[in-house]
Amino acid sequence: MPHINLLPWRDQRRKESQKKFLTIIAVNIVVVMLILYLIGSFYDSLTAGQQVKNNYLGAEVAKLDSRIVEINDLSQQKENLQRRINLIEELQSNRNLGTQIIDEVVRVVPAGVYLTSLERKENLIKVVGRSESNNRLSQMLRGVESSYLLERPTIQGIVTGEQNSRLLSDFTMHFYVKPFREIDTEARAQ
């Protein structure tokens, strides 16, 4: 008996089913690839946006850094100017300091004390002289201590002697000129 296939529709149906299955798989693959592409594009756009923000922030930080450098330069210039101003003020106040020292020494030297030598080395003043009595020297010490310009008096030595039938004592005294800021503060207070 010859072999006759009475059911060819089953083979056709199986082939159609395979075609449908392959078509569905292909469509799914295309849809998944499209979805993956869209997700990748979305994240790429987020990354690009963040990169733009980072670049902007980096540019702003660079501007601020340059401003900080300018501010530091200005601060340094301000400090230099302040030092110069202070130096000029000190020089201005010390311009008449020699005269002020002589005037103050005249004010603190009592009657009966005679100065033979006055020597200044920076802030140290060395006085050599003669005195009629030690009380006059102590009065001079008190005068130097109460002075707005002079400070820290010390007597180096007292030697008694005779001159012109009067008993005079030779003495050596040191005292200091107050620093500029202390003089300025005390002068403003008076």
From TrEMBL:
The keyword Transferase belongs to this UniProt entry's keyword annotation: no
GO biological process, one term: type IV pilus assembly
Organism superkingdom: Bacteria
Coiled-coil segments: 64-94
Residue ranges of the TM segments: 21-43
Record key words, sorted: Coiled coil, Membrane, Transmembrane, Transmembrane helix
Key word Coiled coil present: yes
Listed PANTHER family: DNA UTILIZATION PROTEIN HOFN (PTHR40278), TYPE IV PILUS INNER MEMBRANE COMPONENT PILN (PTHR40278:SF2)
Protein's recorded name: Pilus assembly protein PilN
